[in-house]
Amino acid sequence: MLMVTALSRPEAVTSVSAQEIDPPGGIEARIDDLIGRMTLEEKLGQLSMLDADYPSGELTDEQKQMVRDGVLGSTLNGRGAVATNEAQRIAVEESRLGIPLIFGFDVIHGYRTVFPMPLAEAATWSVRDARRSAAIAAKEARAAGVTWTFAPMVDITHDARWGRIVEGAGEDPFMGSAFSRARVKGFQGDDYSRPDRVAATAKHWVAYGGAEAGRDYNTVDTSERNLRELYFPPFKAAHDAGVDSFMTAFNEISGIPATANPFTLTEVLRDEWGEDGPVLSDYTAVAELRACPIPNVETDPGRGACGHAVAADGAEAARLALNAGTDIEMVSQLYRTHIPELLDQGLVTMERVDEAVRRVLRLKFRAGLFDDPYVDESKEGGVLLAPDHLAQARRIAARSMVLLENKNQVLPLSADLKRVAVVGPLANNQIDMIGTWTGDGKPEDVVPVLRGVEAALGDEANVSYAQGCDTECVSEDGFRAALQAARSAQATIVVVGEPAAWSGEASSRAEIDLPGRQIQLLKAIKKTGKPFVVVLMNGRPLDLNWLHNRAPAVVEAWYPGTQAGHAVADVLFGKVNPGGKLPVSFPRAVGQIPLYYNQKPTGRPPNPENKYTSQYLDVPVTPLYEFGYGLSYTDFEISNVRLSAPSISPGGSLTVSADVANIGSRSGDEVVQLYIHDKVASVTRPIAELRGFKRLNLDAGEEKTVTFSIDETDLAFWGQENTWVVEPGEFDVWVGDTSAVTEYPAEDDELHETFTLNN
Ligand code: BGC
Are 554 and 512 in contact (CB under 8 A)? Predict the structure, then answer.
């Protein structure tokens, strides 16, 4: 029997509360003073967030009056230096207590300069890039009066059907945590009162990515172990990085909706982690606790939202959400409507209301709004789309691209080509190329692929264009022009993929193939016999079987953002050697979903030689393209994996090193990945778990040594007794260029080592 050591829990509270350490006259004392002077209506106003007019970013007249009356604390979608200053002036100068507003907005992958979607950015495997793009997004957003972003979205998912997979960092909790930390630091810096930072929000708390069948908003039923090991870690990483707010998820978690869940909202977030910033509900999520139909929509409007049916009416919904730990109600107004009567009935306490208000005011103080509530209107224009922002957007987009296929080294294309055809529904399409959740990004700012290719080839080249079909591709009417363009070109660049609106919120798909007749378009182009390469733009893993077998070259470009066309051209013509790797598994068939690399072994591990093992009759169990996969225009060799010691003691650590050489003829980036596996444990463990990654650049012929450190927190898991444990014993460790390294046969032993964790 293995001895189990209780580990100091990664979730243990390490800090004392803000109130305990506040100096005299500090933020907490100022909050005490304010709360002491607030009426109940003013308190409930701080717990209300309303939706400003989306296109203009202005508050409505009714909202402005509420601000004047001191009964509206925050907005979403309110933005623009002039519009926010105007509303802020009302709050600060005309309301009784002068409490500033805070303006929240979904700054997900850029504000006006749009970066690649977060899933794409994860494909860079570069947390520095993520931090940098978040910092630029923060700078632009703050210049436009936005003080608070509803990002990072740190939901892990195993389901390519779920449209919101595009908003997160993919399938792995270790990687998700690294990107979560980086994005929080990028948005907030060390002090988000600065004029180039914003407060961040970790969302959606929690397990939203577990939606059954990948259908958005659907039921989630999961174990505490899965919560602790899979869904919580990126949120904990955000908390540790100083994130100052959380947003609830729309889903239920094993029967209790996330917006009324005392376990996640209070037991874990407050009592275990010591989080002291506010939790806001997602859009109308408080009202969605109600049963349908709503008994009296006149007196209990809540925007008409209902569904989970854990509350009979709006009053019960408000009680459940507030008491569980949801501090701010987004959009529906049940707190304002019902909390007074709930207080009278003794169903909620003033102490709980004050606690929620305190958290909101804390966020506003930390954002510097009490000291400097306005933004400098003269600066906004110069900050948005600043040249260095665009340069970073181009650089990061190119670094996020993953080379999936490159048969016979078709890519890179020669920059001396004189006749190139650019075809396909996304080739000259500024709307879809920036993706979903585009902040204040404008299609007219976007460089489409056609323009990027023209710029790369210069005036001497003849670049022809034909759309072929639109993104949904129901008609073949435009194919003829596309084929004509392909026939008269030396090379054709075909840009296919999904409309941006097919991923993101409420955009789940049951089939994950290329839309409509796009494959027919590709087949027809192939039939011309002329050279072609495929660029994909999509927000989820797609079924790429045809491309895998038949396309000479495939670049996964995701939705690259404002500088899409330049970034695609940089990769196609070899200015940038692609170094991205997949942060999600691409399945062979939609029926394999949920699919992820760090699966459990099962009692009957898959074995094609034995029917009675865990597998399919019709497709292999492996993905088409695995987590961590990606090609390059050069070749790398990883060798000589070695450990600093054969064993590790509790509290100690060891290092794992490997040599990486560029054995090809051009400079390039390799992402070196470290995986571990607990050989025997008292609860089943994944066949492999990522525990380190580094992206490095190597010139042709260059060799570098990469070193990772492993300590016992890397080996911990959620034990049988519902605490974090580490168990002595043997562990496998691999270093490679893909998650498939863990399946390499014994001859590739050079990439594998074992070590022991001592008692
Ligand atoms: C989304 C959130 C978003 C909110 C505000 C909701 O529909 O789920 O992620 O932050 O809207 O726009």
Answer: no
Among the listed residues 449, 431, 505, the one whose alpha carbon sits nearest the alpha carbon of residue 211: 505
For 100-126, write each residue's pLDDT tens digit. 999 999 999 999 999 999 999 999 999
Q: Which residues are catalytic?
A: 282
**Cα 151 to ligand 1 centroid, rounded to whole Å:** 10
Bridge partners of 220?
253
Q: Taking the CB of residue 382, how many other CB atoms lie within 10 A of it?
A: 9
DSSP state of 739: G
In the chain, what are the domain boundaries? 46-102, 389-592, 636-757
DSSP one-letter string for 167-209: GS--S-HHHHHHHHHHHHHHHHTT-TTSTT--B--EEEETTGG
Is the pLDDT at 750 greater than 70? The verdict is: yes
Query: How remote is the CA of residue 283 from the centroid of ligand 1, in Å?
Result: 6
Q: What is the pLDDT of residues 627-642, one digit of tens each?
A: 999 999 999 999 999 9
Nearest protein Cα to ligand 1, atom 10: 150
CATH fold, domain 389-592, is: Rossmann fold (3.40.50)
Whether 150 is in the pocket of ligand 1, judged by its Cβ within 6 Å, is yes
Determine if ligand 1 sits within 6 Å of the CB of residue 203: yes
CATH code of domain 636-757:
2.60.40.10
Q: How far apart are CA 541 and CA 624, in angstroms?
A: 10
Secondary structure (DSSP) of 636-657: EEEEEEEES-SEE-TT-EEEEE
